[in-house]
Amino acid sequence: MQVIRGDFENQLHVTADLSVHGRLRAGARVAPGARLTLRGMSDGDILVERGASAELWGVVQRSILNRGGMVSIFGLVAGDVTTSEDGKTWLSPDSVVRGRRRTL
Fold it and tell me: What number of other Cβ atoms are within 10 A of residue 32's Cβ?
């Protein structure tokens, strides 16, 4: 798994396993077969496609949309967490979602 550190201005398009330590100013899109591990903050939405996965440690200032992948949340989501019927989203017991949790 590749590891990158820093403050990223543009939306990240994740096509291979990637660990980000830092800040995503425009969020991320995780493609099928890829895995994102975020340790830090996202100011934008996180979109997880079918067959992709994301492990989010920290703060997501916007929303998470799981379109058929696997998402694990450890921290705070200021927006909504939306999961399609074929997706799986898990929240740690001490995580907080300020928006709505819903299934499409």
Answer: 13
